[in-house]
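Re: the multi-chain job from yesterday

Posting the exact lines I submitted so nobody has to dig through the queue logs.
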Amino acid sequence: MVDTSGLCKAHVRIVRCALLTIMTVSGAVIGLRALLGPLTFPMKATNPVNPEDCFALALVLTMLVKADAPSITNS
Amino acid sequence: MDLVTAIGLMALTIVAFWRTTHLYFLSDDFVLLKYARSLHGAFWPLFTAGGGDGFFRPIGYISLVFTSAWAGANPVLWHSAALALHITNTVLVYMLAAMLGRSRLAAIFAAVLFAIHGTRPEAAVWIAGRFDLLSTFFVLCGLLLFIRSQNELPSVGYVYGFASLACMILAILTKESAYVFPFLLVLLLVSDGHWSWRRLTGLISFHLVAAALFAYRWILFGGIGGYRDVQTGEPQALTLGVVHTIKALVLRTWAVLLFPINWSREPNKVLAVLVVAYVISVVCLAVVRMDRAELLFALGFVLVSILPPLHLLLIGSDLGKSRLLYLPSVGFCLMLSLAIDGLRGRVRYVIPALILAFHFAALQHNLNSWEYASEKAKAVSAAAGKCAGPGTQRIVVSGLPGVLQGVPFFVNGFREAVELQQRSPGIPIVEAIRGSPSDWRAGSCVLVWDEAKDKLSSDKAGVYMGLRPAEIDGRQTLRAKTRK
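And the result, structure tokens for all chains:
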């Protein structure tokens, strides 16, 4: 779990933006793979296992960071 | 729990899985079918000896015997029984979500997602998935009864507590993954935040009983049991590496729960468009504010319940072994339903609809592979059955794949499949070999798997499917002459 109690609000925002960027990029690769078939350019993606992993991990972390947010606002 | 919701969930699940009732048996199904028919009501040995496969699942096997008694070898009835159990679990997930404080919309969403999640085929379609279905049924019943026991007066609460304990015992005796039950109760109480002496003593009794069952299992197997490493002979559960553990816990489990697509078959355009809509919907859900304790319970549910099969959980792009995520997916559904409860306005309906549409399409896409493998398994069994004439002493099948498009095909069960076709154990020797058949004895029937066409047919050496013993002898002579 991500303990954000020691982080300031700006740091949390940066982490959240980074995670959302990862989700957007990896989500785009998965979407393109599904729409266009196996990709060879700009990256090779036959079975998009790695983008799926990145997207899933980023989602869980984003949810944890977001769920932690109220306590930071209060502090 | 209102009747309309239950009927609605049932109808939706039947619509999603209707085509699966007509599928044939696959791989381990044949072995289990034969085993269930051979027990003849002798249940006691199931409780006093560990299975030869390294598993101790007496209740699971008894359920197979009862199904076998009325379903015989009819695949439609077997699949219908599995579907009925899956529907029951779906309704139980709805009740659990509602008891945990979800809104009606979110509870229905959790139940529907559980019903039509793309990883369902291996648990709900494969007969060998019975252990997961039944074990999850008892775990869900146990959780609901435990929650109820906490909300009642002590005099009535103890009754629910004992019923929950009984469910835990049945779940553990159905499949070993249910050993996590006491830890799920800890999670439940931690997320609730209210501790009392009564709750603590209740928890201790669950842990003690689970530990006693584990000790009994240890005595039966002389160790932890389960699958063994082919090379070292060590139990696989004890050979976990750090990288493997992290990858399974942190990456693959979540990835497969989020994107349950069998990539060994190309997705159609409808599914492809829904993937894009789904990705956008999930990104929207990620920024929803949620209650931390409830989120940790849902995440903890997934992480705790994947611990027993962790050594098997590096699930690939073909979703093989995804039945192991049947119980953990309850936590995943609760997690997304929590996020749904945080949505406001019109998106509260649009996002859940898009997510469910994606999972429905992914399920249908994955079921195509099951339908395909099922047809092929039926054709293989029929060809082998036809091949076994009165004079046949031996059937040899070369190159039969264990997995076809991610679906268990003939990892096990070829001999049993032939016997089922023949309605009797008539052929003395049935062999599935890897390379080209080299042993050409009279009375043999040789079948060769054509990888390009996914069927039994002729190979380059001129070996033909379904040759009678006399024909094989003739061909042998012909080949010998040609060589000369």
